[in-house]
Amino acid sequence: RTVYLNGEYLPEDEAKISIFDRGFLMADGVYEVTSVLGGKLIDFEGHALRLQRSLDELEMQHPSSRDDLLEVHRELVRLNDITDGMIYLQITRGSAGDRDFAYPSKDTAPTIVLFTQAKPGMADSPMAKTGMKVISIADQRWGRRDIKTVQLLYPSMGKMMAKAAGCDDAWMVEDGAVTEGTSNNAYIVKGNTIITRQLSHEILHGITRAAVLRFALEAQMKIEERPFTIEEAQGADEAFITSASTFVMPVVEIDGAAVGAGTPGPVAARLREIYLDESRKAAL
Ligand code: PLP
What we know:
Elements: E1 2-5, E2 8-11, H1 22-26, E3 29-37, E4 40-41, H2 44-57, H3 66-79, E5 85-92, E6 111-118, H4 127-130, E7 132-138, H5 153-164, E8 169-174, E9 177-181, E10 185-190, E11 193-196, H6 207-218, E12 222-225, H7 230-234, E13 238-243, E14 247-254, E15 257-258, H8 266-281
Parallel strand pairs: 7-8, 7-14, 11-12
Antiparallel strand pairs: 1-2, 1-6, 3-4, 3-5, 5-6, 8-9, 10-11, 10-13, 13-14, 14-15
The protein binds pyridoxal-5'-phosphate.
Protein name: Probable branched-chain-amino-acid aminotransferase
InterPro entries: Aminotrans_IV, Aminotrans_IV_CS, Aminotransferase-like, BCAT-like_C, BCAT-like_N, Class-IV_PLP-Dep_Aminotrnsfr
Pfam family, one: Aminotran_4
């Protein structure tokens, strides 16, 4: 694989960063994951905007412009011959050469890394047909989940807890209500209404979420942005998640209880189809 590091395209085993990098020592960094379908970038604009917001919230310098970033994404797709897959981008605060809690001075160069992950046929994932099973776990992350930082240890633990329970993911619960999945936004469906938690510091503002809600409104569905409990989700007609890497994915079981008929429902299937069609058309 060819990867990108601080302005250079390199073979992956030649890309090296300092052991003092604050991304490594302190998880002082942000990231984005953009999917590629048919060699084109899905929702690039949304990811570029959220990246800027994450950097601003952490007073971090953006080492690149939106146009240069688009070019780097496209070049990596070309160099690695990616048809379907993902591009991972990470920017950390870099380092002034030692460990220190205080940020280094503003002129310290950030570290920017991008790499590709090929996922042939990712839009035809068999899970879209079978649906996924989730467990609920306490949300024990920090309080600024709207900033897409690389501190992913708790979500990682959550995935392991799900795996140990024979499930695919975990929905995190705080003050009695679902916040989101370990790496996705969570939804339930009742009749023609889609219910998902409102935006706040408690959840990541999903780029796929924004697009899917827009398409749902255009398709005359109703949207309620509010918290919901696990019990309400278990009694809903349908449940699903969204993320850049899974698009729209049905959830058929929560803590061992079947949701609706226990099979993927029509609303999630329709939204998945619309999302894939529309975002392919708008891909860059
Ligand atoms: N919520 C969390 C915690 C995530 O990590 C992610 C994606 O990685 C999402 C939601 C979905 O966001 P997006 O649709 O922008 O991929």
